[in-house]
């Protein structure tokens, strides 16, 4: 009986401490700007180097589980496949945590996750009805379309 009471007291204490941590996190999240899909649009500040041939771009990670999981797998050199004249994609061998929603507009330089394992790098801005999970965005995408070209492309992603 004494063991049962001790266990209950410990669980209640743990529960209270976890709920207070959650409230702190909620306040922090709501103080950040969010875009229309509820994910933080103000990235974590972590940077990634994206190399395509001789062109080098810097991208900033979003603050979410998919971005964190992707970062953990870097560096990666991927042979990305052309699709629709506006994107390059690669099917990752391991699923990433997804929290997909419709962004409404895809922007040049968006690095998004389609489903849980298709990494997509967009090189044109357009409206979409599809849902994605944000991973990162190229900071200055000028020249990205030219670097990627019209066919498949080899893209290297590494932490900066």
Number of DSSP-assigned strands: 10
Roughly how many Å apart are the termini?
A: 56 Å
Helix content: 25-40%
Shape: globular
Proper CATH architecture of the largest domain: Beta Barrel
The proportion of strand residues reads 25-35%
The CATH topology of the largest domain: Cyclophilin
Description:
With 160 residues, the chain is of the alpha+beta class. The protein folds into two domains: 1-31; 47-159, Cyclophilin (Beta Barrel). The protein is 27% helix and 33% strand. It contains three helices and ten strands, in the order H-E-E-H-E-E-E-E-E-E-E-H-E. The chain has helices at 2-31, 65-72, 144-148, and strands at 47-52, 55-61, 76-83, 87-91, 105-106, 110-114, 118-122, 126-127, 133-138, 153-159. The strands form two sheets. An eight-stranded antiparallel barrel has the order 1-2-9-6-7-4-3-10. Strands 5-8 form a two-stranded antiparallel sheet. The radius of gyration is 20 Å and the shape is globular. The N and C termini lie far apart (56 Å). The model is unreliable at 1-44 (pLDDT under 50).
Q: Summarize this, please?
A:
The protein has 160 residues and is of the alpha+beta class. Helix content is 27%, strand content 33%.
Helix and strand topology:
Elements lengths: L1 H30 L15 E6 L2 E7 L3 H8 L3 E8 L3 E5 L13 E2 L3 E5 L3 E5 L3 E2 L5 E6 L5 H5 L4 E7 L1
Antiparallel strand pairs: 1-2, 1-10, 2-9, 3-4, 3-10, 4-7, 5-8, 6-7, 6-9
